[in-house]
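Quick check before the chapter quiz. The format below is the same one you will see on the exam, so make sure you can read both the input and the output lines.
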Amino acid sequence: MTSRTDKPAARPLLLVVDDAPPVLEIVERLAAKAGFEVTACGSGAEAMRLLYMLDRADERPTTMRDALDDVPTKPFSPEQLVRTVRSVVAR
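Here is the expected output.
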């Protein structure tokens, strides 16, 4: 039984990186709708700066559990993307 003071479960954090703005926007919305907390970056350099800033602020996770690199490759279906990410998170 949960009470009103119980905090909701944290949503898995997903860092989305793509250099194509339309793809980035679609994936960001899709992942948020699928229940992920999303941070989006338009380049690998931007993602590295973000990770560096989080590290310096000691706000990063203690480990970077998994990384997906162009998985699935474009073009992809929204359902395929969500299945792939969920399978990695479930490991």
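If your answer matched, good. The radius of gyration is 15 Å.
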